[in-house]
Design a protein that fits this description.
Elements: H1 11-14, E1 24-25, H2 28-37, E2 41-46, H3 51-58, H4 64-73, E3 75-80, H5 85-99, E4 106-110, E5 117-121, H6 135-148, H7 150-169, H8 180-195, H9 207-215, H10 227-240, E6 254-255, E7 263-264, E8 267-268, H11 269-284, H12 290-306, E9 317-318, E10 321-322, E11 332-333, H13 341-347, H14 350-359, H15 384-398, H16 414-419, E12 430-431, E13 434-435, H17 436-453, H18 456-472, E14 474-475, E15 478-484, E16 487-491, H19 494-510, H20 516-532, H21 566-581, H22 584-603, H23 609-620, E17 622-626, H24 628-634, E18 642-646, E19 656-660, E20 663-664, H25 671-681
Length: about 700
């Protein structure tokens, strides 16, 4: 017997279709029904590759006693956070206000008449354990509270909504503001400290912080940190660590330890796009470690093989868990990726195994539940012997050698995974929906890697995905966020606009003579301004006014999480567009946007590295006008706040023109002079270029 979610397009929602809970999706009918029946709403938010979301689905949400009580006393609603990040952001903030921490699954209890939350948590076990109450106890206590403590309920909700509204509006910047150059230094110092290696906790890529730290290495900031060394180490942790799949390519989401060894095995498109861009930027900054190039190439091979739809767009994610046998009821975490020592002994020659143990973390006891996650021990190029050994492991995993496979079809759900005839191991389930924001991050990564490594195939892959979005995601004058098997749905949110405009500008940068990317970016930016710009406050709302009637507050995203904030990216885009189009209205909006968030930048620089990246663009923006030949020679270099414009009518005897914001320098009469001007221009707003 299935519930309403059996008809949902979202893989995450469909995973709950067999639950005895009478789930609704988030819709007007559900909200109206809850209000009419005076039932508190149980809102549960997660995503398809979330491990603990999967655990709770199989435990508490499958329990008959819990379902009976839930159905009688609450109106349960399931939301895929990847479909509705605006809803997720509001209620995650409420959870953090109540508990001081966040995470998924996000389980929130809302008052039906106004949708204001009054209690929230993450994972709830069926029975009391892990220091957490049993879920049925929680439900009974909250229904009793809702029925009998009306005055306290109203006071509690008033505090929460006041906090949410205050956070959404933001306070004005303080009168004793730091100068922009000192503010930028503070932001750089904070981000560099955040990505400095530590000895405890999980390890996340945190690319928005790493990206700002790397940008700042071109300044002579006085600091206790060696920025270049810290940024290099972050790249090494990613490219050498167990977070990278050394056999099949692609990066997992994070590791559960401070040593970058054992990952949480899901692979998210957004991580991979950002990491490819970051490693390519490290290479362009002169840190040319062979492991970086290998990780980039392997990730793009994985993307082409497993994550690219026939139409050219990229899938969203792959699960952490997979089945070892078709008869299993529940999948195992990491089963597709790990290796027992006895397996390695059977598959590899003694010479290969010896070298694998010398270069990777391979032991008889393993490092993950008796199995081995491969993590490199040393820098440099892998030997031919090791590449042969890794190819053997690839062949066992996929059932075919890496040379003879172009595409590996996705398992779209657990049933497909268990019943298809896989030539190797049973793969993890792939969430095949298209998300504009995440595709855009991958397009940007591919564009940067294409420019740095001069790989036209990377650019072709990026252009196909960009053209799919341009051709298929605009319906009746509205940009749409998602695509399910050819059907666009859900209005685009600020991150979709901001990341896609950045992707188009990045394609333009890697291929300066093709101006169609810039033209498309301008068109979409104008729609972004029309639907989401806040005239009163400055900056961009998360969702347009005609798609946010069900939101208790209208937020403007400024805090960076696993990805950069929409406003940080959008403000940087505005500066780039002003330079490339000569339309100073974009620069006015960028200035208003930075002013809108200055108080946050002063008060909490640890929250918003992408706003500091935008400030860097605003202070140090550089336009380089030159011929195609000269610009192509600059594309692989590290000039993080520069844009390129191809011109054919340069002043006689010159090779290029460098403009610093709204003023131009004397025409450069040699390549050396042009490069000198570019370097000086890239740091004029802070200090001199490091030598």
């Amino acid at each position: 017997m299935t519930n309403r979610l059996a008809e949902a397009k979202s893989l995450y929602l469909r995973k709950h279709a067999e639950n005895p809970i009478d789930w609704w999706s988030w819709c007007d009918e559900a909200l109206t029904t809850a209000k009419a029946q005076d039932k508190p709403i149980f809102l549960s938010i997660g995503y398809s590759s979330c491990h603990w979301c999967t655990v709770m689905e199989g435990e508490a949400f499958s329990d008959l006693a819990i379902a009976q009580y839930m159905n009688a006393n609450f109106l349960p609603i399931k939301v895929d956070r990847e479909e509705r990040p605006d809803l997720d952001s509001i209620y995650m903030q409420a959870l953090q206000m109540m508990s001081g921490q966040g995470g998924w699954p996000l389980n929130v209890f809302l008052s039906p008449e106004d949708l204001v939350p009054f209690y929230a948590g993450t994972y709830f076990p069926v029975d009391q354990r892990y220091g957490r109450p049993g879920f049925l106890q929680v439900l009974q206590a909250l229904r009793r509270y809702y029925d009998t403590e009306k005055q306290d309920l109203q006071q509690r909700k008033a505090l929460i909504i006041e906090s949410l509204l205050t956070s959404a509006v933001l306070q004005d910047a303080t009168t004793n503001e730091l100068e922009d150059h000192e503010l930028l230094r503070q932001g750089w110092e904070t981000s560099t400290a955040i990505i400095t290696p530590n000895q405890s906790g999980n390890s996340f890529p945190m690319i928005p912080y790493a990206e700002l730290a790397l940008r700042g290495t071109r300044f002579n900031f006085e600091s206790q940190y060696d920025g270049k060394q810290v940024c290099t180490q972050r790249g090494l942790d990613l490219a050498l660590g167990g977070i990278y799949d050394h056999v099949g390519g692609g990066f997992h989401r994070y590791t559960v330890d401070p040593t970058w060894t054992v990952p949480h095995f899901e692979k998210m498109l957004y991580d991979n796009g950002q990491i490819v861009e970051y490693l390519a930027c490290l290479w362009s900054a002169g840190i040319q470690e062979p492991a970086f190039a290998r990780a980039i190439a392997g990730t793009i091979q994985w993307l082409k093989r497993e994550m690219t739809a026939p139409e050219g767009y990229f899938y969203a994610a792959q699960d952490a868990d997979s089945f070892t046998e078709p008869t299993e009821v529940e999948p195992e975490e990491g089963a597709f990726y790990v290796w027992s020592y006895s397996q390695l002994q059977q598959l590899l020659t003694p010479e290969e195994l010896t070298e694998l143990q010398q270069q990777f973390t391979v032991t008889p006891n393993g490092n993950f539940e008796g199995q081995n996650v491969l993590q490199r021990r040393h820098l440099g190029q892998l030997s031919a012997t090791l590449e042969t050994a890794l190819n053997k492991l690839f062949t066992v995993r996929y059932g075919v050698s890496p040379e003879s496979i172009e595409t590996f079809p996705p398992a779209r759900n657990n049933q497909e995974a268990k019943t298809s005839d896989w030539p190797g191991r049973i793969p993890s389930v792939t969430d095949t929906k298209m998300i504009v924001a995440w595709n855009s991050l991958m397009i940007s990564g591919l564009a940067r890697a294409a420019g740095v490594f001069q790989q036209s195939s990377y650019l072709e892959l990026a252009a196909r995905a960009a053209n799919f979005i341009l051709d298929r995601q605009f319906v009746d004058g509205h940009f749409h966020r998602l695509n399910y098997q050819g059907e666009p749905t859900v209005f685009a949110q600020s991150e979709d606009y901001a990341f896609f405009i950045k992707a188009l500008l990045d394609l333009q940068t890697s291929n300066p003579e093709h101006k169609q990317w810039l033209e498309k970016a301008i068109t979409i930016q104008d729609e972004f301004n029309e639907f989401l710009w806040s005239v009163e406050l400055g900056g961009y709302y998360n969702a347009s006014s005609d798609s946010s009637q069900d939101l208790i507050v209208r937020e403007r995203s400024y805090a960076d999480n696993a990805t950069a904030s929409a406003n940080g990216v959008a403000i940087a885009n505005l500066v780039r567009l002003a330079l490339l189009s000569d339309n100073l209205h974009y620069l006015d909006l960028a200035e208003q946007g930075l002013k809108a968030f200055k108080s946050v930048m002063h008060r909490a620089p640890q929250a918003c590295p992408s706003l500091f990246t935008a400030l860097d663009w605003y202070r140090n923006s550089t336009l380089i006008r030159s011929t195609t030949e000269q610009l192509n020679s600059l594309v692989p270099k590290f000039v993080p706040s520069a844009v390129f414009a191809m011109v054919s009518d340069l002043p006689e005897g010159s090779v290029g023109l460098v403009c610093q914001g709204l003023k131009c320098l004397a025409p450069a009469e040699s390549v050396e002079r042009l490069w000198q001007q570019v370097q000086q221009s890239q740091s004029r707003g802070v200090g001199s270029v490091q030598r």
